[in-house]
Design brief:
The chain is about 0% helix and about 10% strand. It is built from no helices and 4 strands.
């Protein structure tokens, strides 16, 4: 609010520039922590490697 000489007040627009912005959580749409650090976001499970043997489908296999 800006005070005028007659004692009344009025609003005015002020442009502000920042050198950087703090992290923003896309879950809460607020500043303070990044989405990857959000306490409500569950971490992704790491990929599990599975061994699959090479099988030659062109060569017949004899089973006894």
């Amino acid at each position: 609010m800006v005070s005028k000489e007659d004692g009344s007040e009025t609003t005015c627009k002020v442009d502000v520039e920042y050198e950087w912005l703090p992290p923003k959580c896309t879950t809460f749409m607020s500043l303070g922590h990044a989405t990857r650090m959000c306490p409500t976001v569950k971490p992704k499970q790491p990929a599990v490697l599975v061994y699959v043997p090479n099988v030659d489908v062109e060569k017949p296999v004899t089973v006894q």
